[in-house]
Please model this.
Amino acid sequence: MRPMTTVDANPLRQGLEQERVPDPSCLVIFGASGDLTQRKLIPGLYMLAHDGLLPQGQTIVGIARQDMTDEQFRASMRAACDEHARTRPVDDAIWESFARGLFYVSGEFTDPAAYTRLKARLEEFDRTRGTAGRRIYYLAVPPQFFEKIAELLGKENMVCDPEKGGPYTRVIIEKPFGHDLASARELNQVAVSTFRERQVFRIDHYLGKETVQNLLVLRFANGIFEPFWNRQYIDHVQFTVAESIGVEKRGNYFETAGIARDIIQNHMLQLVSLVAMEPPVAFEANAVRDEKVKVLRALRPIEEAVRGQYAEGSVMGERAAAYREEANVDPNSRVETYAAIKVFLDNWRWAGVPFYVRAGKRLPKRVTDISIHFRPAPHPLFSRLGLRMQPNVLAIRIQPDEGISLRFDSKLPGPTVRTAPVTMEFRYATSFGAEPPEAYERLLLETMLGDATLFARRDEIETAWSWLDPLLHRWANDPAPPPFYEAGTWGPEEANVLIEKDGRKWRRP
Amino acid sequence: MIDADVRVHAGSIEKQLAELWRNEKQAHDDAVTRAALWNVVAHTWNSKQHAHATEVLASASASVPQRTIVVRADPNAPHDMQAWISANCHLLGDSRQVCSEEVSIVAGGERVDHVAPLVNALLLPDMPVAVWWLGDLPNDHAYVESLLEPADRLIVDSSQFDSAADFALVARIAEQTTTAPADVNWARVEEWRAASAAVFDPPAMRARLQSIAHVRVTTAGGTLGATSEAVLYVSWLMAQLGYEIPFELATQSEEEGISAVDIRFRDNTTALIRGDRGRGVVKCSAAHAETELDCITRKRGRGLSDLIVRLLKQPESDRVYLEALRIARDVAARVAASHAA
Model:
């Protein structure tokens, strides 16, 4: 059940664009001086205020080591919004109102005194700003701090147990959710030692993207797709998450992660789950997540996978350095920057249908794309005329230039029967004009509303790791370096072999 | 760029449109996308309205791609019918353009009777139809209803209404036909609805929704049309809260539409909502217990094109508006009577 929201009680909200406005709460951001806060969180929250989606009295408290006054924090966040807000320039009147709800507490995350100070301020806001004990803790900090923060929040009695009633407490955790199954379990254990599972909101920002959410609408709001969405009509499915950039300043992190942990374990498996899941009984958190977990449980252990690492090349007309030349990267690194995996789901709907997934850095362009390749027509009527028919492809572009296209064959005009593939296209920008909200805006709002549909659940995370772990161990124990691919190409030749030996080829997204 | 304003014979409009796109395809290959989410039929009475509708819908088609049909029907004009076609193209931010089609039809004398069937033939299949009625509604209701036969949506602007009967006609269309009315003025009121809703968002204030003793709306005045935003606002409040609320419309002449709302509760405390046109926001304030409440809502564009886009972006009929309209019929009659007095 969706928790009770303002719309249930405030009849004046009915029919407004801002139909769902949460009750005011204190949103505490641990790591308030960090990059995520400045680039995504505060600009996202400002945009919610701009669009009338934040309640009056909503209070945002930043906490970080650096000494700062409330005013200095506001000035710093204003600069962040000036640079990163989705609509600019920042509206002064909206900002003034929004900034009145911005506060700062300085302190070490490991220092109990900081929590005492924080608690006192939050209680003051409960009285003066109407937040009434409602708390959201956003842990925009590295995972090694989670345990201590959770422990100290618990010790200071800053967490309400939902089983005992009272105002809500929620916690938002950012990926990475561990680096393997064991660490993910440990992290989840830390979370549930202080919070109950339903209080934990694990952000995978892919789920906040409009086009990812549209996957559910496409599949389950349209009668025409679902009858064909199975092994009987679908030959195979391809998933591509391509980035044109390299590791940039994240060399340290990437050396411990690699593309499989960075993209495939989370974003890619979310996409696979949404494409392959059975219809949920309702569009609500546990019903949707139950179906996604069933998909993950049906994943067959990985038999065929390819990794690669980018070598020097050229991307978008510029020289691109090799991965091993990047800052904070071991010159002999064996970390993969590209991975392609042939995935099978052992269930009734998808038995025998390969899902080819690939993700990589320094590929020719930034694109996330899913393509459903249908089986050819059962009777080759036109082959007798020497025509080579192309299978139908339904392509779903997640980013950029979001949209959906369907390829089918059509007769070329003229007295003879000749055919050519044509594409029927839907593009968000063309049809709807307006720019979609940033993923973080949606996810922050959903947390305030208490709707966890777009967040990963503990069993999703752990099931995904248990599937990927053996491959990661295999690669870690392989003394050979990954095959190299030239930056600006679509990955190593081995990735082409992976799919071409099945008589198929990667779609150029 | 696609040819603009190509004069065509009324009987070959569709054929000429196809020719227009074929030529464009040859010239620019994939750079142009033709798109439509709505058929929008604008009904105008004179050349000034016709030019206005053309301009507004050309702008609106950037946000809501549409086949636009602008009709000028004047029974007193010479017996004639003329048609033009053109395309409204908007850059998508790169070299690609998205284009909507526009058909203009001018009919005079008895040829006015041929307009409705011609418009019917030009509607894109499977796309909803909105009829935008410019100006005051005519006394000849049968004529309005003949044009509405294929319409899913009737767009009116109650700021142009000159009698309470116009509200009654729109309410009757809502009740007796499958055409859902929509009012440009309703979109203008949205920022006041949002600000009023914000007053009652805090749980402590929600309990006071049932204890409103009086509402005072400061509004432009002089005619029913000028006060129609206020009429819709108080009607909405009563419809949503389910009880009769004593109200007063205080007129001012500086600004169009609503400029302030004062809500008085039974305990004589108040919630104040004020427009700040200079800063483009509506602010509200109320006091309850220890908590001083203040909220701010961004004012939306009041340009006709923006307002029409907002109405067209609602795929379904607006049930909240229809409920308010039911009450607006009576509120408008009371306001009109007070004007007469």
In short: The mean pLDDT of chain B is 86.
